[in-house]
Amino acid sequence: MSKILVIGARGRAGRAAVDEARRRGHEVTAVARTADGGLVAGDVTDPGQIAELASGHDAVIAAVYDGGTDFFTKASRALVDGLEKAGVSRLVWVGLASILPTADGTLLMDTPTYPQGYRAFYLAHQAALDTFAASTLDWVSIAPAGDFSHADPTRTGAYRITPADASSLISYADLAIALVDEVERPTHHHTAIGAVRSDT
């Protein structure tokens, strides 16, 4: 059994990660911006709070979101500083499909017809990964290879790692399996990967 800190536990990806980790018998500290319903209050942009919350944990799953592009700069820097201070090296980050390579190596955000209105948001996610890459953390970023399946939220119990494809779908519950797998059996290191429902 591991002690896992899940940051962003009120969101759909974070909530699914908490449920999956507890399903497997792990001890979970669930963190959100405000405390209620069993959630612990914490600010992912505050390295001091991150260090305090992460102390004594084996790994951190961060499923955080904010519409502002500077948020990811602050959050990634705080995670690096806080986790290094706490002595926690394993970080599993919920990433973004847009910055993943497709089968031919083209980033999904650079493929024809891909929406460009949020490009600054895509690049902010990439900047966060650049911050992790310059650190001592053993990090991995896991994203849907395309998008989350909102119409079918079923937990199939399986997934596969695949290049980015805008048509690929995965449920939050199945992505959570991938997240917790990378805590239990770290397979991918210092990289970003995409996951898809295994029957697609």
TrEMBL record:
<feature type="domain" description="NAD(P)-binding">
    <location>
        <begin position="8"/>
        <end position="186"/>
    </location>
</feature>
<protein>
    <recommendedName>
        <fullName>NAD(P)-binding domain-containing protein</fullName>
    </recommendedName>
</protein>
<dbReference type="InterPro" id="IPR036291">
    <property type="entry name" value="NAD(P)-bd_dom_sf"/>
</dbReference>
<dbReference type="InterPro" id="IPR016040">
    <property type="entry name" value="NAD(P)-bd_dom"/>
</dbReference>
<dbReference type="InterPro" id="IPR051606">
    <property type="entry name" value="Polyketide_Oxido-like"/>
</dbReference>
<dbReference type="Pfam" id="PF13460">
    <property type="entry name" value="NAD_binding_10"/>
</dbReference>
<dbReference type="GO" id="GO:0016646">
    <property type="term" value="F:oxidoreductase activity, acting on the CH-NH group of donors, NAD or NADP as acceptor"/>
</dbReference>
